[in-house]
tRNA modification GTPase MnmE (Koleobacter methoxysyntrophicus), 401 residues
Amino acid sequence: MNETPRANRLHIAIVGKRNAGKSSIINALTHQEVSIVSSCPGTTTDPVYKAMELHDLGPVVFIDTAGIDDAGDLGVERVKRTERVLDAADMALIVFTPGDKDITLEKEWIKRFQQKKVSVIGVVNKIDLKESIGEIEKPFKGIDIPFIYVSAKTGEGIDRLRDMIKKHSPSSWEEPRIVSDLIRPGSLVILVVPIDIEAPKGRLILPQVQTLRDILDHNSTGIITKENTLRDTLKSLAVKPTLVITDSQVFAEVDRLVPHDIPLTSFSILMARYKGDLKELIRGIEAVKQLKEGGRVLIAEACTHHPVEDDIGREKIPRWLQEYVGAPLDFTWLSGKDFPNNLGEYDLVIHCGGCMINRREMLSRIGKCREAGVPIINYGIIIATMKGIIERAMQVFGIQV
């Protein structure tokens, strides 16, 4: 459970008014004190992501949120941050309090989740404070979602809530496979991993680890090598590799070393399919070719890593892109959970592989770009395009560019 990356877990948002007992429900579901509980409304401010194991369902992430009725200037900002969960949630628990006669806000949030095609469960908490379950049920008649009545304090109904979460969890929430559907069991795959200033000390980055694990889970063999040892690695093999996967930053060098009868692609392109919509991201290639001097380009990264010297997103891609276009461009950078509303101001969005967000959130970002009429592409695809090897990089997927 602890080794499952957060982005690969079922994301369950807990939404409701202040002091409805959202954090208490998380604690009751997990049998742990993972959320701060207080009788003071507004204890939870920003959305808090808590990776947990839910019995019979597996690794999940609970998203504990601020109250949707938060007030004041600061409260408005907290509600805006709560709205981010609309893009990341695979399912939602809307928490109600017995006796609350105005549930307009809760109904609005149910509608918003349903518009996003997110499975919603209504959870009426604190039933230990009321005598008649019939009276508790009255305000919720006619709301078209499954309801359950619980007490996070006494534990009543919590086991049934776990069962309901399992029953209503989306069957298709898991991401597709990274690479194993492209190879047969027994295949030999070479992974080219540069160890440079951007490589984290003492470990590999998440997409590399996930790709290797997917290869091993498919009863195939993965060989890891650096770009400066790739030639010798290829010579030492008794059989031809089924596939070579490289870090996009050394795409051109690896392309020269790997014979063209061996399929070649990159970790970032695999992530474009695994986390997003590969065909939609490929459409961004045409926008890259049409960029002109002064074109506005947004470079978006889902994580908040500290930029290093010659950083891929801050320096390399902008440098390579301006060389490709033959003119200076206007770049804006964005990192973390924020994604702008002014997408229509840009001529192109270049996104990272998205390994730190889940597939729903990546697809949401792609959808927002589509709605704004701005093309989006990811690191691996644009690098392959600029280096003139995009056709080869797409062959393994059966896609012609």
Notes: The domain at 6-168 is CATH 3.40.50.300 (Rossmann fold). The CA atoms of residues 187 and 220 lie 5 Å apart.
